[in-house]
UniProtKB/TrEMBL annotation:
UniProt organism field: Paradevosia shaoguanensis
Residue stretches in coiled coil: none
UniProt entry tagged with the keyword Hydrolase: yes
Alphabetical GO biological process terms: glycerolipid catabolic process
Pfam families in the cross-refs: Abhydrolase_1 (PF00561)
InterPro entries named in the record: AB_hydrolase (IPR050471), AB_hydrolase_1 (IPR000073), AB_hydrolase_fold (IPR029058)
Name this polypeptide is given: Alpha/beta hydrolase
GO molecular function, one term: triacylglycerol lipase activity
Superkingdom: Bacteria
Domain AB hydrolase-1: 24-161
Length: 274
């Protein structure tokens, strides 16, 4: 289906978004340094059921600050997501957030419950909900120290290794489409901003559990079957336990929405069913 793009003005920034499909509004929030482009395949597989709107969080790729880059703030990220839903005019919305984007989704659901019909929180880095967050916080400190000492490439290599992920830091795979190569280049360009501030802000955020427990049926905690035994799986499990809900198994690992888009889209449709 045809993809359209536009921007909306929010305080201090302008947000870029892409929309495709028809039906109930489904807002997709990327994680960490990612942008809307990483969901291109997934969005097409959902477009026959939903109007899918994916955006670049402020500071990433095409969502630019009015002036100098600002530190990441979870309430501001939540405000941005709310503004996007209100601008779309089709709320309340279904929301899917992955990784740091799941943290933004949890902030949105807690502070703007009237705008969220259901949230799929895919592998949120809810470090502070672990019984003992100290070891994970130590890996964040190691990541920051590696960035300051050895630079972006070394730090990102360490991050992927810490989380059981693989990534070719020498460039995109040779079989990538031109569109995917553009996305790869944009996301790579966001790594430094994410390392400087995002990784700590997004992972140290503690969701408002009391607000979320007011209607826990709205929250789907999605955990990849390929992430079992990884730190991110333990974090999502801790969130589900605190909310009193059962986590839902999703295809793939932390990047399942890219590597297994057909199965991932089917899992989303099941989880969003009323």
């Amino acid at each position: 289906m045809q993809v359209t793009s536009d921007t909306i003005k929010v305080p201090g920034a302008r947000l870029y978004y892409e929309a495709v499909g028809r039906g109930p509004l489904l807002v997709i929030i990327p994680g960490g340094p990612q942008d809307a482009g990483v969901f291109a395949d997934l969005a097409q597989r959902l477009a026959d059921r939903y109007r899918v709107v994916a955006y670049d969080p402020r500071g990433n790729s095409r969502s630019t600050f009015d002036g100098a880059a600002q530190p990441q703030n979870m309430d501001i990220h939540g405000d941005d997501a709310a503004a996007l839903i209100e601008a779309a005019g089709d709320g309340p919305a279904y929301v899917f957030g992955t990784s740091g984007g799941a943290q933004i989704g949890l902030n949105l659901a807690a502070r703007y419950p009237h705008l969220v019909k259901r949230l799929i929180a895919h592998e949120p880095p809810t470090v502070m909900l672990l019984d003992d967050p100290v070891p994970v916080l130590a890996t964040n400190d190691e990541l920051q120290a590696t960035y300051r000492r050895d630079g972006v490439e070394a730090a990102m290599g360490l991050f992927f290794a810490q989380n059981g992920l693989s990534e070719d830091m020498d460039g995109p795979p040779p079989d990538m489409t031109p569109e995917a190569m553009e996305t790869f280049a944009r996301v790579s360009g966001n790594f430094e901003y994410w390392l400087v501030d995002g990784v700590v802000s997004l992972s140290s955020y503690e969701p408002d559990l009391a607000a979320l427990r007011a209607d826990p049926a709205r929250i789907v905690v999605a955990l990849g079957v390929g992430s079992v035994d990884q730190p991110i799986h333990a974090m999502g499990t801790a969130l589900a336990s605190r909310l009193g809900v059962q986590p839902v198994a999703f295809p793939g690992d932390h990047m399942g929405f890219e590597t297994e888009p057909d199965a991932f889209a089917a899992a989303m449709v099941r989880s969003l069913a009323d």
